[in-house]
Amino acid sequence: MDWRVILVLSPVIIALTWALFNIGAAALNQAQQFLKKES
Fold first, then answer.
1. Closest by Cα among 18, 25, 24 to 10
2. Cα Rg of the chain (Å, integer)
3. How far is Cα 28 from Cα 25, in angstroms, rounded to an integer?
4. Domain chopping of the chain, boundaries
5. Euclidean distance between CA atoms 30 and 8, whole angstroms
6. pTM of the predicted model, to two decimals?
7. Vertex 26: Cα angle to 30 and 17 (nearest 5)
8. Measured between alpha carbons, how far is 16 from 18 in angstroms, rounded to an integer?
9. What is the DSSP-derived secondary structure letter of residue 14?
10. What share of the chain is helix, strand, coil (3-state, %, to 5)?
11. pLDDT (tens digit, 9 = 90+) per residue, 1-39?
């Protein structure tokens, strides 16, 4: 694999994983609040 491909894709992959991490954390927080409200 060419190093230039990795160089171009790495910021995109980092941004995607960071976005998924943030969305996942927000979703978990919202789910916990929803469950607290239900009980």
1. 18
2. 17
3. 5
4. 1-39
5. 34
6. 0.62
7. 150
8. 5
9. H
10. 90, 0, 10
11. 799 999 999 999 999 999 999 999 999 999 999 999 987
